[in-house]
Structures
1.
Amino acid sequence: MTYKDELRPIDFQQKEPGAAPFPELVYRFRPLNTEYTFEELRRAVKDNAFRFSSLESFNDPFESSPRYVGSKPKDVKEYILNFKSNVSGQFDVFGNPIEIVAQKYDVTERKAKKLIQPTILGANKYLEEIKKWHNYIVTDNLALSASISWDSILMWSHYTNSHNGICMELEVDSDLMHMFGRSLEPMQYTDERPHIDTIELMKYASMPIATDYPDFFNMEELFATGRRLSTTKSEAWRYEGEERIIIKSPDGPGYYEVKSLSVKSILLGVNLDTDARKKIRQEFSDFCKVEDLVLHASKYELVRVPNEN
């Protein structure tokens, strides 16, 4: 186990009591120009398994990139002092077990505890360290993206190789979402990058242990920090109507089972070739609906054409 492996805040996507319900349906647009996409369809339709990707591989250079503001060293010093007074001495101020800190710096656990000092020097050390930790949010968080609508001409153009792909219509089981803690979160669109400071990031880094110290950590604030980091994008992306499931896994990008999502229909892009349509119907019609899309006769709209499967 490495130091980096321990820097994993718990998932912040769990819905609090009274939160808005999950959408009943979401949509995942995919190109269909490789056998790889057929494998993705098979896993989704037959196994309820979906491919999660690292946020650093997404197509937005601002992904999970807030406006970072360094806190004043004296404020960081005070936070470290309060942390040591209220939280077990078995953790550093990022919520990492002391044995992991000792491994990182190749020192004994006794010496590792002494590294956590409520001094200006210690504060400056953490001001630099937290910047490195923030990079792990982007590299370690894995996301599954979907949209709230199937009929966006732009989504078909941008994510299905100019309408040469498919769209999976996914049914959302809210009860299972709550049960397994993998919840859809709507993206927030804004003209300003979210602002986050050193102390707020330090608190968020301690999320794995936060529930054990409710008098020191405010969970609502930590959830809000997580959302701002991973579900905020520019207004330019609003057309996507994106919803995300974000997880952390030591296994990295790949297929993960999501019991709360099931493929209800496969929608076929208007430019998809005949052979691909035939192959999809042959392989998947016994498992879900397969529907063609056509152009509306008089409007700039896409129309679904249900088929007898």
2.
Amino acid sequence: MMNKTIKKLRNKIWLTLSISFSSLVILMLAIIYLLMSQNTQHMIYQSLNMRLSSEAYFFEDIFFSVFISSEETRNIHASSQYLSTSTLESLVSQALPLIDDHYYHHLLMDDATWAYMVQGAYTIESETHTTDYTQIIFVNVTELMDKLKRLLLILSVIGSASLFVIIIGNFFVANKLVKPTIRAFAKEKEVNAFQKRFIANASHELRTPLTLVKGSYDEVLDNLSKTVISQKKWFNVMDFGIRRMESLTEELLLLSELAHHKSGKIDKNDVVDLCGLVQEVVAVLEMKVVEKGITISTSENLGIMVKQNREKLKQVVLILLDNAIKYVNPKGWIKVEVLSVDKQVNLCVKNSGKGISTVDLPHIFERFYRGNDVSGKSKGHGLGLAIAKETIELLGGEIFAESVVGETTTFGFTLFIE
């Protein structure tokens, strides 16, 4: 949906383009017509001049010459089988006022268009005497003028069709030109909505541990006469709240760091043995594995090397393994596989458990999204998988999640070898 500002911008672009292209088309068609008109006029002028310089009579249906004596009787010497005497006299009477006007003129007679040129003081010598005449050359230009009219009609039709195409075409062009602006507005709207959600979610996540800390602190204040040992429970609650806030703060700072790296380049010059990295992370999480009594197996495909940022990769593997330990069923299993296929490396963390519902799975990498597992319990802040996704994308890879409800869940990523 366009807002009013974008619609105004679209309409302004549309109007500007339509006026510009329409003016150009009209100018081109006008030039074509003017050139053809001038060419036609030049042809008529040349034909009249050519016949005006000749002393011969022309008795044709297109051209004929008339000589009018300068005597009072103004005898008309012309013979034409195509024109009646009255028509001829009418033509001459209209042409005579323009004697010595050295350009041709038009007149309409009997549904025909005639071009004519008048020349005075034309002398014809005979054996007995010399007579001065006025010569008029007539040419029937009806066909030429009809062609010019047809050309004007054709150009008008072409112009109208072109204007229609220009207006419709420029509407789509204007829409296409404002698409980046629409996307920018949509992006800005999305960013604003995301920021609001982020602030709301972060506030909510902080409110819970703060409530715990404040409530426990109030309890201690109300019982200052009691010993520290007797109030250990409240200190433990405060410790839990503080650690939770510390964890959330670290994750938020990590997301901020990832956003900063997106605007620049990240160092990917470490040669990393993925299987060795997995073993290293498993050792860090060994205590949790023992506590839950689960079995964890890792890939034996040693020697799969990638040129990447070691710390970022370790962070992602740690998140995926920690997530698997959280949601694996008691006495269950976790399997970590590292495979190299063509020019890509895949790392998968698969665990047994109740899985992720089909409703939650598409949103599992969203910030602060904490989908309920099948048992209805949710764990963590909902930032770990979002951090893993953004980190892998920063490293030029792809992350994925698969789940069979009631059986297994698989998280993994693909890195492309350059």
3.
Amino acid sequence: MKPILVCGPSGSGKSTYIQKLAGEIGGPVYGFVTRKEDDGHIYLYAAGDKERQMGETNRIGDLISTEKRLARPHPEVFDGLGLALLSDIPSGALVLMDELGILESDALAFQARVLEVLQGPYRVLAALKDRDTPFLNAVRELGEIVNVQCTMKEKTALQFSII
């Protein structure tokens, strides 16, 4: 299976779509999910983690402005925990990367591992922010991937198109 990259703006349904695909594929899931929590921070969790404990060791960003969607990143968490969550993955395993965005812009080891996983012997489902950064552009420019574009249409109808 070619890696599937779901791209789109915040709130367009990228995470919902890849979670649905992961459920249909079934089996153990490796990788990570990121979530903005009510405490004003953004956290990194193991893909299959149901308990989702919040703390300094998995906090990847501190919201500065919710209106402008600005956050102060913690690249050391990506290069530590993020790298660990993308390591020791069995060949052929399902890997979720939800989501790749701008907070990891200075996490060079993490970025390199993401690119390795996308080109490795895995079944990858990834959500990408629709931002223009060298890292996200490198992800989009990989060969042998399936790009799915998510768009909000009239804020009520979700539309997906494969590009």
